[in-house]
Each structure stands twice: as C-alpha cells, then as structure tokens.
C-alpha cells in the first residue's frame, strides 16, 4: 500500500511564456517531476505564477497546458490535495480549477501547521519595502471593476494583449537572477519583519526567481522556491524537515 506522507511546494512555472517552444519543453519537464512525486505526495502547493497568463472568462480559459492540467487531474484523482496560489501573472483565477481539480485557490498568504511546525506561505509579490508602482497596479488588477472590464473584451483580443505583454516579462528574457545579499533581498527583509509579530518555523515564497534556503534564526528557515526556466527547484516536507531540491529529469 502506497504511503502518501510528503508535501511538495513549487512555483513560477510560467507556462505559456514566450517563446512557445521553451514553454512546451518546460511543461514536459514539470510533468516528469509530477510523475516522480505522485507515488508519495499527500499534498501539492503551487505557489503562484504557474501560468504566465491566466484569465477565466465565463465559458473560456486560455488554450494550452492540456498535459499539465491532465497530470494535475490524475494527481487529484489519486487523492493528492492541490492548492494553487494566485501570482502576479495568474491572479485572475476564479472557479474553474476548483471545479475541475477540486483545488483550493489562495489569493494571498496561507498559514499551516504540520506536525507542530508553523508555515507561512505567499507567492511574494507586493511584499517587503519598495516597488510602490506594482503594489498600486496590483490593487487595480485585483479589483472587481478591472476584472469585469477585462471580461468584456473578446478572448481573442484579451488573451492576445496578454501574450504580447508576456514577451517582455522576466520569464521571456530567460535571464538568471543573482542573490543580492540578505540586506537587499526584499522577501528576506519582509520575513524578518514578519517574525517580529509572530513566530514561524518556515517561510516559503516564490516570485523572486532565485532559489535560496536561509536560516533567519535558530528556529526559522526561509525558502524561495525559484523558478523552472533555469533552476527547476522545489521544496519537500517529509514530516520532519523542509528541504530545497533540484529536479533533474
């Protein structure tokens, strides 16, 4: 009998990013990883920017990703609990993936307790000091009025605009990020501020596109999950410890 006792965390797949050929290869790599974890996964947390763009019209969703979505459906049918976080690229998730996969959709942060260990999980966009322009835009994009107006666009136009915009994103540039030092990593600074208000054993973020695993104190570990364009990194909780690992297909 298969024992499902591992919990997996990954983010920033950016499926659908330009160029298409790279996205298709990345999708196949991700599927091979999902095949690998399905034997012992109890839960899967996808911590934002899984899609480079996502918008759910009433009767239309973006084309593509059929193999990836099919694999998620397979995991769900095996009893794996799937949780999806909204990122800055795929914040317009509504009810489709909940209905099709039984997934839980998280808009912002999530707090977990696992075996007496406390977790704080967030995609990471809009946290920490600075970046006021994006924080302002996020409020607009998350607003009901903005979503209603975008839904009035024909999908060919709305998704077409998003795909052209995608060509200028970090994912399309394929540039490798560099660690900036703890004092300049805004998610680490946010984590330190967070710990002044409440203790967590583990902080998990995405968004930054650079994987790191750092001890903020003797009792708190912060992990950035990285991305799957250059790094293919993820985290796994085995019931006792959380580790950042790299997938080599």
Automatic annotation (TrEMBL):
The question of whether Membrane is a record keyword is answered with yes
Q: Which domain of life is it from?
A: Bacteria
Which Gene Ontology terms cover its molecular function? hydrolase activity
Under InterPro entries, the record lists: Calcineurin-like_PHP (IPR004843), LpxH-like (IPR043461), Metallo-depent_PP-like (IPR029052)
The Calcineurin-like phosphoesterase domain sits at 7-209
Which keywords annotate this record? Cell inner membrane, Cell membrane, Hydrolase, Manganese, Membrane, Metal-binding
The cross-references to PANTHER family, in alphabetical order and at most eight, read:
UDP-2,3-DIACYLGLUCOSAMINE HYDROLASE, UDP-2,3-DIACYLGLUCOSAMINE HYDROLASE-RELATED
> What is the protein name for this chain?
UDP-2,3-diacylglucosamine hydrolase
Q: Which organism is it from?
A: Sphingobacterium pedocola
